[in-house]
Design goal:
The structure holds 2 protein chains of 2 kinds. Chain A is of the alpha+beta class. Among the domains of chain A are: about 5-80 and about 225-255, Nucleotidyltransferase, domain 5 (2-Layer Sandwich), CATH 3.30.420; about 80-225, no CATH class; about 495-610, Dna Ligase, domain 1; about 630-695, no CATH class. Helix content of chain A is about 30%, strand content about 25%. In chain A, helix 1 (about 40-55) packs across helix 7, helix 4 (about 145-160) crosses helix 5 and helix 10 packs across helix 12. By secondary structure, chain B is an alpha+beta fold. Helices cover about 25% and strands about 20% of the residues of chain B. Chain B contains 14 helices and 23 strands. A 6-stranded antiparallel β-sheet of chain B has the order 1-4-3-2-5-6. A 5-stranded antiparallel β-sheet of chain B has the order 13-14-20-17-18, with helices on one face. In chain B, helix 1 (about 25-50) packs antiparallel against helix 5 (about 195-220), helix 1 crosses helix 6 and helix 7 (about 315-325) packs across helix 9. The longest helix of chain B has 29 residues, at about 195-220. Classes of the chains: A alpha+beta, B alpha+beta. Chains A and B meet through helix 3, strand 22 and helix 12 of A and helix 1, helix 5, helix 6, helix 8 and helix 10 of B.
Chain lengths: ~700, ~650
């Protein structure tokens, strides 16, 4: 019988991480291959080849692949690098300067308005054209759509050779008719144009944000389509000209088939961090932790997020580089603290760490690839906290080069080399700690109530310092911490979000109208799930609404019950709003007749559940604590945890030698392929039944 | 010295070597933690406050101060701890105390108008065995109503502070964790929005108490002496940095310049002079290398509410309020953005104030609610006087705060007030054009049409840029808004704005921008202009209100601007074809309509060569100046030398 293998594949800047799951045996294997930025599909296919080999399948044998889920940064990188060109924008007459005006905000400090230089707009003013026609906020037509004007605009863009266009008309969230007419005119006059309509990308009020989201969607569409189509073709060829279900990770924590994702490319932006947060969330939840902070440390940055009861918190206030996006995404805060983050002296003479990064190329001094500045990795290797090689010995590190760099920096600061190196790491730990505080404060939460889950190549190196600084009681390090994002891809359901702005005071809300609106959204979601191959009985729908107090400019999202809605159901949603408002903001107006509740957005998420790999508890749990035999008489090296104490001979344990139930007191270094976990004196680590490392303070 | 220094406040470092021996790693950790606590406090206030001015317009700030009352955080301005320390001995403070004040005349100059509600919380640490005050966390926010003659507590025709709302001198609002209910009920009773006032206060108190706990942990972890040594280092490094990167750019010497508010809501429009004589002393000056800002020559106290109480505590608030302007002297815009403004700037600035009774030294109970006409203008006066010293390498003028709105009853008969702060263009810089439609308050936002049309009975027919509003220059001023609002029901229009006669000035050959202007029914039978200080201008259903906000001043001679940029500006609808010729001397070719617009290089060179020599004035204030200055084209101080 043919095996059925599901593959998660996460393409990062340096490495492509691959996880394969044998649906029959439950076996899970992981690997890494170098990424191939010039043609990411090469690294993608190499990763598939490699992981199938690890499962004992012959090279090139794609018959066993049952599905592939993919996390990609193609769209994200295009935006971060600002490679947006030949993009046109069509808007309502009288609003052609919308992108110049933006929201009138100057970022950062007071007084910056005098010297701030606005970054270039996503579409220059000369590629913005207005078309007549006007709707009001209910969607009713105030002035008819100007067909002749629309044709002239379409002809103009055709003549200019602009083939990627975003369309955003005022109040199109309430009525897409004018935008759809615009698309029909473009199809007729300028059939080569790739078009994104705001009423399809984001059916939500606030014209500037909706326009930006639509334009970002249009901007990444050509490149993402080409990329996804290319991989789809190569996968099919690999699998014997068989159509392999191919899913792409979305930033909302769901996946979508490659066929469909090309129609909503913006939903893939920031999908990489989303997969990591989801994978870590599932692992931590199975291990018994329901309030979790995830910290994913890579080469250039660390991504942190909040997960409660297995559900990552979402935001619609995200942005990629300079571009805001109102698409729901997992709320990830990125800190410029990764292995390659550079330690430097500011003009004030202060020691700073990051956000500039040496990346993987030239990389840290110890990579000996031309790096000239001390990085976090250099500090770790000088202190002995990481082994003098990478990836289980494949790549040796130049410790002497790192030490020389640290000594030079230390000399400028008047510090000893150990004090300098520990100082660099201490500053980095505080930068991460401050980010973790801010993601929790933003939601009115206390960081001390959370378990921290650290993963990624550099995510676990400073976990003991984070525990100390933040007074966090427990840290969990999942198995294969370098592959949590790829693992996360295997845990993700198919998910589509639909929104309809429907502004109405609660007292005037007609339950029948709301029900009908939800029915429309649910039908859209069901149709999409059917296209994805889900039978009706598998469909899951989550209904929510965004409510606010009349006069507020921001909304709070609450669940809305299933089924036909009556006044009682609407009342229940309003009650949920009062309660959630109190949680988020510390007050509510429940029972205060002078404060009216207003409904703003109706939302439906359509979910097609997939079979998740089961995280199985290990049999043969070792009972009784104590250091496993491998540390006695095993490997050891001098490690400096505290500059005042200096180097102490510290046992080094291979993680795979630690059986479930084993417990080791610090100081100890736990090593595995692609990741290292230094346990400082005063802490201890044990292995739970799922092979997670659980780090706590030592008793007494 | 200031005439008003009722209390001698301590100054100087906390440690014997002023932080010179502080651990460089800890300095960065402490500085990062201060920034983080400041942000956490601001995040908490944004989450839980209620006034739209705080929640949406972001008109609130947090600050952290040491026990010598020195401001440690550097991203934004803050009020002062001095009035609290003046009235409540620090030794008598207890954990859980929360102090409150909004009384302008008892604020040592830290609070400019009554709606700014200020909360101060002492930070305690038990490190080193004794439990004592080691720092302060403070926040203030612009609440929507604190009583007084008009809703919103900003009466543009007020002649006394008693018309502006409830004054609360420094009081102990929470006593060791117990709120003073009597004081709270008096305050809420005096507001037209009592629930949101209570919520705003609660938000500020809770957030500052949280910040104080967080900061206390830092002292507990590292010890008071170590942390204070870092505070000294943080402040000292700012002083050193400003000396090296800012003061070094200004030659030793003395310069004078002035600018004006144009009206005060009571008297007819006139020049309300604000003057700075800037003296930069030599490195070997017996009293130290510093900038002396002498405000002598500033005009008399206004009858209306545009006064600002500047002359308290040696102007320590104004020093930190004005210092951000000096950052424009740093080498690059990126570096300017990096420079913190903390107490470290104070030793480098000396202020000298005129006798009581001027715009900057008003006598109680002079009204102050529209003091932005003075303190925002002073930013520009300082930029201008420094520009004279450094051959113009400072930004031209900007004006980005004014209030416009409509009110009445909506289509359902429910009363409403729509009030917004529309920004304007910033001035040209020697390295870049000014930016369009920005706002000086960081993170403040305008109101989306799709929001306002759903809420209020009007249609925003267009929201664009006011063509030609940016002052011409080698680097053009940024553009202001042009907003067309069509009322669907009879309503009233209100406006509190300066710079409707006088314009944002251009410098070093750059021209002034266009001033603020409101026209009702433009091009229609009932076309009329509205005064910039208007409380209740009637507008009929169907009429359009056209609001044009200020463009920034231009920088440098427009006749040397790259003609291709002028062509681009015409294509971008920022400059009209007429202005391309008249203001920039660019002879256009082709047409906008068929995308063939270009310029004739030879004709442009000839046109430019034939222009008369530029004015002798270093500043251009626009035609409005002559109207208020008896026909004079420019002020005496506008000429160099």
């Amino acid at each position: 019988m043919t095996r059925r293998i599901r593959i998660g594949i996460d393409t990062g800047g340096t490495f492509t991480d691959v996880v394969a799951f044998d649906e029959g045996s439950g076996e899970l294997v992981t690997t890494k291959t170098p990424s191939t930025p010039r043609n990411p599909a090469d690294g993608f296919m190499a990763g598939i080849d490699k992981v199938l080999g690890l499962l004992g399948l012959p090279e090139g044998d794609g018959d066993a692949i049952s599905a592939v889920s993919h996390g990609t940064t193609v769209a994200t990188n295009q935006l971060l690098e600002g490679k947006v060109d030949a993009l046109g924008y069509i808007t309502t007459e009288g609003y052609e300067a919308m992108l110049e005006i933006a929201r009138q905000s100057v970022p950062d400090g007071y007084g910056n308005s005098y010297f701030w230089v606005k970054p270039p707009r996503i579409v220059p003013r000369d590629l913005v054209k207005g078309v007549g026609g006007r709707l009001d906020f209910t969607g009713a037509e105030v002035r008819p759509f100007d067909e002749d004007g629309a044709r002239a605009v379409a002809r103009w863009f055709k003549a200019q050779g602009i083939t990627t266009l975003g369309v955003c008309f005022l109040h199109a969230y309430a009525n897409p008719a004018h935008e759809e007419r615009m698309r029909a005119v473009l199809a007729e006059v300028h059939p080569d144009a790739v078009v994104s309509l705001s009423s399809e990308v984001l059916r939500e009020y606030r014209e500037y944000e909706r326009a930006m989201t639509t334009l970002v969607d249009a901007a990444v569409k050509p490149r993402l389509s080409a990329y996804v189509t290319n991989i789809k073709g190569r996968l099919a060829a690999y699998a014997g000209d068989r159509r392999v279900p191919f899913y792409v990770m979305k930033s909302n924590g769901g996946v979508l088939s490659a066929d469909e994702v090309v129609h909503q490319p913006i939903t893939t932006v920031l999908s990489g961090p989303a997969a990591g947060a989801l994978g870590a969330a599932l692992i931590a939840q199975v291990a018994g932790f329901d309030r979790v902070l995830t910290s994913d440390g890579g080469g250039t940055s660390t991504d942190v997020s909040v997960v409660i009861d297995g559900v990552p918190t979402l935001t619609t206030e995200g942005s990629v580089g300079a571009y805001p996006s109102k698409i729901p995404m997992i709320d990830v805060v990125t800190v410029g603290a990764g292995g390659g983050s550079i330690a430097w002296l500011s003009p004030e003479g202060t020691l700073k760490v990051g956000p500039q990064s040496a990346g993987a190329d030239p990389g840290p001094l110890c990579y000996a690839k031309g790096g000239t500045e001390v990085t976090i990795t250099d500090a770790h290797v000088v202190l002995g906290r990481i082994p003098p090689h990478l990836l289980g010995g494949e790549i040796p590190l130049d410790v002497d080069a790192a030490r020389a760099g640290v000594e030079t920096l230390a000399g400028k600061l008047g510090l000893g080399p150990e004090a300098c190196a520990t100082g660099v790491l201490e500053i980095s730990a505080w930068n991460q700690a401050n980010a973790l505080r801010q993601v929790t404060v933003k939601r009115g939460l206390d960081v001390r109530d959370f378990t921290l889950t650290t993963f990624g190549g550099s995510g676990s190196l400073l976990l003991c310092r984070l525990m100390d600084i933040l007074a966090i009681p427990t840290v969990l390090v999942p198995p294969n911490p370098g592959n949590v994002s790829a693992f996360g891809l295997l845990t993700v359901d198919v998910k589509n979000d639909y929104v309809q702005t429907h502004v109405s005071l609660a007292e005037r809300l007609d339950a029948g109208v709301v029900s009908a609106a939800y029915d429309v959204l649910t039908r859209q979601a069901a149709d999409a799930l059917a296209v994805e191959g889900f039978a009706p009985e598998q469909h899951v729908f989550q209904r929510t609404a965004d409510l606010r107090y009349f006069g507020q400019a921001f909304e709070v999202r609450v669940p809305v019950p299933e089924g036909d809605l009556d006044d009682a159901a609407l009342e229940a949603a309003a009650d949920a709003f009062h309660a959630e408002h109190r949680v988020l903001y510390g007050y509510d107006f429940s029972g205060d007749a002078s404060q009216q509740v207003e409904w703003v957005n109706l939302r439906v998420s359509g979910i097609g559940p997939i079979t998740r790999p089961e995280i199985r508890a290990s049999e043969g749990l070792v009972t009784g604590a104590g250091a496993p035999s491998s540390t006695s008489g095993g490997e050891a090296r001098p490690v400096c945890f505290d500059a005042g104490v200096g180097y102490v001979e510290t046992p080094v344990v291979q993680r795979d030698s630690l059986a479930p139930g084993a417990s080791v007191p610090g100081p100890v270094i736990v090593e595995e392929f692609g990741s290292t976990v230094p346990i400082h004196p005063g802490f201890e680590v044990r292995v739970d039944e799922y092979l997670n490392l659980i780090v706590t303070r030592s008793e007494g | 010295m200031s005439r008003r220094a009722p209390t001698q406040f301590p100054f100087g470092p906390l440690t014997a070597d002023a932080g010179a021996s502080a651990d460089p790693v800890l300095v960065e950790i402490v500085q990062g933690s201060l920034a983080s606590v400041e942000m956490e406090v601001e995040t908490a206030i944004a989450r839980t406050s209620r006034s739209p001015m705080i929640r949406d317009a972001h008109d609130f700030r947090a600050g952290i101060h040491d026990r010598l009352l020195r401001k440690l955080t550097g991203r934004s301005y803050s009020a002062l701890v001095h009035p609290v320390a003046r009235d409540f001995p620090i030794d008598g403070m207890r954990e859980g105390d929360v102090f409150f004040h909004n009384d302008v005349y008892r604020s040592e100059g830290g609070i400019g108008h009554l709606p700014d509600l200020c909360v101060t919380v002492p930070v305690f640490s038990a490190a080193n065995g004794e439990h004592r005050v080691v720092a302060f966390v403070q926040a203030f926010g612009h609440h929507d109503d604190i009583g007084g003659a008009v809703p919103g507590s900003m009466p543009s025709h007020a002649t006394s502070v008693f018309e502006e709302g409830l004054m609360v001198p420094p009081i102990r609002l929470w006593d060791a964790g117990v709120p003073n209910k009597a004081a709270l009920s008096i305050m809420t009773r005096n507001s037209r929005m009592p629930e949101s006032l209570a919520a705003d206060l609660d938000a500020e108190c809770s957030a500052c108490l949280m910040g104080a706990r967080r900061l206390g942990e830092l002292f507990d972890r590292y010890g008071v002496e170590t942390v204070e040594s870092c505070f000294d280092a943080i402040i000292d490094r700012t002083t050193t940095t400003y000396r090296r990167e800012i003061l070094a750019k200004i030659p030793v010497g003395s310069w004078v310049w002035e600018d004006y508010a144009e009206h005060d809501g009571v008297d007819e429009p006139m020049l309300h002079t604000q003057r700075i004589t800037l003296t930069r002393t030599a490195a070997d000056d017996p009293d130290g290398e510093r900038l002396i800002l002498d405000f002598d020559g500033t005009g008399p106290q206004a009858k209306g509410p545009i006064n600002h109480c500047g002359d308290y505590s040696d102007g320590v608030f104004l020093k930190k309020w004005l210092a951000p302007i000096l950052r424009n002297l740093a080498d690059t815009p990126e570096r300017m953005a990096e420079l913190d403004v903390n107490e470290g700037v104070v030793p480098l600035i000396e202020m000298r104030f005129p006798e009581p009774g001027t715009l900057l030294t008003p006598v109680f109970p002079a009204p102050t609610n529209a003091r932005t006409f003075v303190i925002l203008r002073l930013l520009g006066v300082l930029a201008g006087v420094v520009a004279k010293a450094v051959d113009g390498r400072m930004p031209a003028d900007q004006e980005t705060i004014r209030y416009t709105g409509v009110y009445g009853e909506d289509l359902d008969g429910r009363s409403y007030l729509m009030r917004e702060v529309l920004g304007g263009g910033s001035g040209g810089r020697y390295y870049a054009d000014g930016e369009d439609t920005i706002h000086v308050v960081p993170d403040s936002r305008n109101l989306p049409t799709e929001f306002t049309e759903a809420r209020f009975p009007f249609r925003v027919e267009s929201l664009g840029l006011a063509m030609d509003s940016g002052g011409a220059g080698e680097y053009r001023g940024g553009l202001g808004y042009e907003k067309h609002i069509r009322m669907l029901k009879d309503a009233h229009f209100m406006s509190i704005a300066d710079r409707s006669i006088l314009a944002c000035w251009g410098v070093r050959g750059g021209l002034a921008g266009q001033p603020f202007q409101v026209t009702i029914d433009p091009g229609g039978p009932a076309e009329r202009e509205v005064d910039a200080l208007a409380d209740d201008e009637p507008v009929a259903a169907g009429e359009v209100i056209r609001i044009r906000t200020t463009g920034g001043g231009g920088w440098g001679d427009p006749l040397v601007r790259d003609p291709s940029l002028v062509v681009r500006d015409v294509v971008w609808r920022k400059v009209s074809p007429d202005a391309a010729l008249t203001a920039y001397g660019v002879v256009l070719t082709g047409s906008l309509d068929d995308d063939s617009l270009g310029y004739d290089a030879d004709a442009t060179a000839a046109e430019r060569a034939g222009r008369p020599a530029a004015s002798e004035a270093f500043f251009d204030r626009g035609p409005g100046y002559a109207r208020l200055a008896d026909g004079e084209p420019h002020a005496a101080v506008d000429v160099l030398g």
